[in-house]
Amino acid sequence: MKTKYIQTDQIRCYDESGKIIPCADSGQDGEYKKNRILWPTLRFEADENTVTDLLTGLMWTKNASLWEFPLSWEEALDEVVQMNTFRTFLFNDWRLPERHELFSLISHVHINPALPKGHPFSDIFSGYYWTATPCARLPNQAWYVHLGGGRVFKGMKHGSYMVWPVRSIEARDNCNNKAGQMGRVKNRFIENRHTLTDQCTGLIWTKNAGITKHPVTWIEALTVVRNLNDHNYYGRNDWRLPNIRELESITDMTVHSPAIATSEIFENIQPFYWSSTTSVYDPQYAWTLYTKDGNIGVGYKSHPEFYIWCVRNSSGN
Other CB atoms closer than 10 Å to residue 34's CB: what's the count? Predict the structure, then answer.
């Protein structure tokens, strides 16, 4: 089964104080780089005005601040319409990026801006940029992404944030639709007794999304998963804490409370989860997912505030 989601670029591992440690047997994001579909050596192709991302098939304006000042959400939509009216850079199909599209540019190795090393973009503002994705629970709000560190939050549409247009140069498939990441794809999950296999990503999730009855620290979360493997949890010893992109892949921005794709087939979905990915903005924190709306934030590693959801790769990954 082919993986259809972008992995993180994190290759280092950190303890709860933020110190770099060996990755072997850590259970952290950086340990599993060998299992990833790697980013291409040359990820971006640039010309005078546009940049094509060879990993996603999206074309971005090379200038990430065509409008020097932040705009409201409605103003941003109107300005992109004007771009198309005047066939800016010879194209008339520019649009605001969907949430998962803008998040696809985020690096989990670099900050200020949180973009891949060697990117060809110019005039990047290390702050918030609008997406086209509205908040399902609060329709007067929409999602934005922080280009300084990578957080994903929602805000009032009358707020002012930066605008970075995008266009598609490859056709979308059922696992990459406009509705919100991979959306509510029909028959997306293959249901087994204790697990659910995501046909869009090739990831296998525990059906029980509440491995512990109470929140734990980040180190405790990694230890719990290691202990599950020692006891062949559900007959397997290759469970792991998902990285932040894997957690993001299971969200659905068309629903809420929880904003989880086909949430009715999972059990014990908790309000917030640890990922195995450290925040390089401050390595004492790790990336987290808030399931009510789908916020992507961070948690202080030493505080017992987040839950555990286990994942593993399918045999074809």
Answer: 6
> Which alpha helices (H) appear in 165-297, and where do they start and end?
218-230, 244-249
Q: What is the pLDDT of residue 173?
A: 62
Domains of the chain plus CATH, in order, are 13-29+174-313 (3.10.100), 44-168 (3.10.100.10)
- Phi/psi of residue 130, each to 5°? -65, 150
Distance CA 137, CA 117 (A): 36
Q: Under a CB-based contact definition with an 8 Å cutoff, are residues 249 and 5 in contact?
A: yes
Please state, in angstroms and rounded to a whole number, the distance separating the CA atoms of residues 34 and 50: 32
Percent of the chain having pLDDT more than 70? Answer: 91
H or E stretch covering 75: helix 73-85
Which residues share a beta bridge with 180?
A: 182
Which long-range contacts (C-beta less than 8 Å, at least 24 apart) are formed by 85-91? Answer: 89/49, 89/50, 89/61, 91/59, 91/167
Alpha-helix residue ranges (DSSP H) falling in 204-290: 218-230, 244-249
pLDDT band at 2 (very low <50, low <70, confident <90, very high): very low
Reference 91, options 37, 39, 169, 163; nearest CA is 169
